[in-house]
Design brief:
Layout: H1 8-16, H2 20-31, H3 57-76, H4 86-97, H5 103-113, H6 131-135, E1 138-142, H7 146-157, E2 161-165, H8 174-177, H9 208-221, E3 228-229, E4 232-240, E5 245-252, E6 257-262, E7 264-267, E8 289-292, E9 306-310, H10 314-323, E10 329-333, E11 340-342, H11 352-360, H12 364-375, H13 378-381, H14 398-414, H15 419-425, E12 437-439, H16 442-447, E13 452-455, E14 459-462, E15 466-469, E16 474-476, E17 479-482, E18 496-498, H17 505-509, E19 527-529, H18 543-563, E20 569-571, H19 573-588, H20 616-622, E21 631-633
The structure holds NADP nicotinamide-adenine-dinucleotide phosphate.
NADP nicotinamide-adenine-dinucleotide phosphate binds at residues 184-186, 272, 278, 280, 293, 310-316, 318, 333, 335-336, 435, 459, 483-486, 598, 600.
Length: 634
């Protein structure tokens, strides 16, 4: 492994932006000397203490100096990285996360770390199945977003025939559809990316253009475009029990009807696919311009306009600060404030020096992703788990309260000169009950602007001219923007999916979506769902981790179907029911299960239909490979 030339000045600049624990791990690879991580300079708690992990500035500088000399010596000697033993790697893992790495979690962490270049989410090999058998099995995938493309790539690797259908003109799903100003990912990109497809991200949290380009490049690189049916909207999918195949009806954007057929159907349409407009009286009477955040009308010039915004969720949180810069006035209607998660680097570009470290310093990038993975993963889960003995009106455990106080202090500090806004910006529900929103200060800064007004009075109705609030005030607008979210619990809306006996999923679910592992549904054989019921995560890991687990599992199912000549597999009802009972019990323990707090995590009956309540390790283990006994084959 060679390190490219760099001037002393540039090297010092690069080291100045290093994540110190990852740098120390990298130095161990360069020297083979573990003494460096056995001293007093060590990370403490990655989440609360931030990226410096509680290491003092003096100690950080000491490590940078050591790194400078070590890298110079390594280069001068034409260095070779040390062979580290399994125990050495384990010690490094424990050092980085400042906790023991035990049992199966250790296994997951080491696989995720991927020092051996292995595939973290490898499914069972298809090698023993004759290529003809694989090629004669066809899979239809609906949705060309992050999960659908991943399934396509894995199927292609195994020589299985497939087609990916998408209503849109290109791949990218959510990153194609959401183009509102300020749109960006709020999971760190070094983790919000496929485990086997790293990328030199320009920012820690990239905008929609960068994300879209990543998925477009992925489709190109793996030759998936030949398998795409774009501009094609599926209206129905029905399982033909006699033939054991799924038949789909669709329409191309030009109006032409088309049909597809496959041995298996993978639904990869996501949870946040169809915009939701609120049921507010008079909504259609507004005579100005009105649109939803996910259907942004870019040809509308917002400069100088009077704009009303409904909602303060993740989308509005990002576009309000942007439109406020050009609008005449922005009036934001807030029903419930979100908890704000301070993220100073949220909008920052990754400095040149950090790119250099990530790309050229041996193993630095691997350890950095590892740290991000853990600190944004299991490290946070405890803070949103209910302690039954805890008695407090707005928190659910001591840890939850501790983090709440930090977040509250952030709001107080930001709004020191605007005490009138403080109460409105501090939620009265436990942290984690709704999605917490990252912010580098931009949101509160925008609320402090003279041309931005926060209205907490409830909306009574929408009129021809604007919004009437329940406190009697009338607001006039030129433009109304709905930041009101998505029909999350209406999975697959508006498609009609028919399983055994012609029963629709709508009839089967009765408004209460459930699946086994979020993936399979009794009476809907050979149907596999990605990002299905109860696979959303609130605080731990990233959704790509879950997609990779799900696709690994589905590949296992498809392998079983082909290998064993069992054309149809159907999830056992008792297995499904027991699993869902366990899911419900888990969700009741979590902040998002808090009764009385309404979110897109719950369905109309108040059951949490979207979220996974356990650790990512648990999901990783459960979805490792399908258990034949969970299914009936015919
Ligand atoms: P959302 O989180 O569901 O927020 C909808 C907002 O509209 C809430 O503030 C809600 O208030 C409000 N609202 C709904 N109906 C209303 C009514 N009748 N009157 C007044 N207010 C009403 O939707 P979103 O902001 O589009 O975000 C959805 C999800 O998409 C996020 O949670 C996240 O998972 C994802 N997302 C991610 C990113 C990212 O990665 N950066 C960006 C955007 C979205 P209540 O809270 O009172 O219900």
């Amino acid at each position: 492994m060679t390190i490219p030339d760099l001037s002393d000045e540039k090297l010092r600049e690069a080291l100045a932006c290093a994540h110190i624990p990852s740098l120390m791990a990298s130095l161990v690879h360069l020297t083979g000397n573990l003494a460096l991580i056995r001293g007093d300079i060590r990370p403490q708690d990655g989440f609360i203490l931030g990226p410096d992990c509680g290491i003092s500035e003096a100690h950080q500088q000491h490590i940078r100096d050591v790194a400078f000399d070590t890298i110079r010596t390594f280069k001068a000697q034409g260095g070779k990285t040390a062979e580290l033993s399994k125990n050495d790697i384990l010690e490094l893992c424990e050092f980085i996360i400042a906790a023991p790495v035990e049992g199966p979690y250790g296994d997951l962490l080491q696989r995720e770390l991927g020092l051996d270049g292995g595939d973290t989410f490898a499914h069972d090999s298809f090698e023993d199945i004759p290529p003809e058998s694989r090629a004669s099995f066809c899979v239809v995938i609906v949705g060309a977003g992050m999960s659908g493309l991943l399934a396509a790539k894995r199927l292609k690797d195994e020589g299985i025939d497939f087609i990916v259908i998408d209503k849109n003109a290109d791949v990218g799903g959510t990153w194609l559809e959401n183009t509102y100003p300020g749109c960006r990912v709020d999971s760190a990109n070094h983790m919000y990316s496929y485990s086997f497809e790293p990328y030199d991200w320009p920012q820690h949290f990239c905008d929609n253009h960068v994300l879209l380009a990543y998925f477009q490049r992925f489709a190109d690189k793996y030759g998936l475009r030949d398998h795409l049916a774009l501009n094609t909207e599926v209206s129905s999918a029905a399982f033909d029990e006699d033939a054991g195949v799924w038949r789909l009806e669709a329409r191309r954007s030009g109006g032409e009807a088309v049909r597809f057929e496959g041995n298996a159907l993978i639904m990869a349409t996501g949870q946040l696919n169809r915009p939701r407009l609120p049921e507010i009286q008079g909504r259609d009477t507004f005579s100005g311009i009105a649109f939803h955040s996910a259907r942004w009308e870019h040809d509308q010039n917002l400069t100088g306009k009077r704009i009303g915004v409904i909602g303060t969720g993740a989308s509005a949180f990002q576009f309000v600060p942007e439109i406020a810069k050009v609008a005449g006035d922005v009036t934001v209607f807030q029903r419930t404030p979100p908890w704000i998660l301070p993220t100073p680097e949220y909008h920052d570009f990754i400095p040149e020096g950090k790119h250099w470290l990530l790309n050229h310093l041996p193993f630095y990038g691997k350890w950095y992703r590892f740290w991000v993975f853990h600190s944004a993963g299991e490290g946070l889960l405890d803070s949103v788990r209910r302690d039954p003995a805890w008695r407090n009106w707005r928190s659910i455990s001591a840890k939850n309260e501790e983090v709440t106080r930090i977040l509250e202090a952030f709001v107080h500090e930001q709004l020191a000169d605007r005490p009138d806004l403080i109460n409105a910006c501090i939620p009265a529900y436990p942290l984690g009950a709704k999605r917490g929103l990252r912010d580098n200060g931009a949101w509160l800064e925008s609320l402090r602007r003279d041309n931005v007004h926060l209205v907490t009075a409830k909306i009574d109705s929408i009129s021809e001219r604007g919004i009437c609030a329940q406190d009697g005030r009338d607001f006039e607008f030129d433009v109304l923007i709905y930041g009101t979210g998505f029909k999350a619990s209406d999975f697959f809306f508006p498609m009609e999916i028919r399983g055994r006996g012609g029963k629709t999923l709508e009839q089967h679910w009765q408004g209460d979506a459930r699946a086994y592992l979020g993936i399979t549904i009794p009476e809907f054989p050979n149907l596999f769902v990605l990002y299905g019921p109860n696979t959303n995560i609130v605080i731990n890991a990233s959704i790509t981790f879950f997609s990779e687990c799900e696709v690994r599992y589905v590949m296992g199912c498809i392998r079983m179907l082909i290998d064993k000549h069992r054309s149809v597999m159907d999830c056992r009802q008792d297995v499904h029911d027991a699993y869902n009972k366990w899911i419900d019990q888990g969700n009741e323990q979590m902040a998002w299960g808090t009764p009385g707090v309404s979110t897109w995590y719950k369905n109309a009956a108040g059951r949490v239909t979207q979220n996974w309540p356990y650790s990512m390790l648990e999901f990783w283990q459960q979805t490792k490979s399908p258990n034949e006994a969970d299914y009936q084959f015919s």
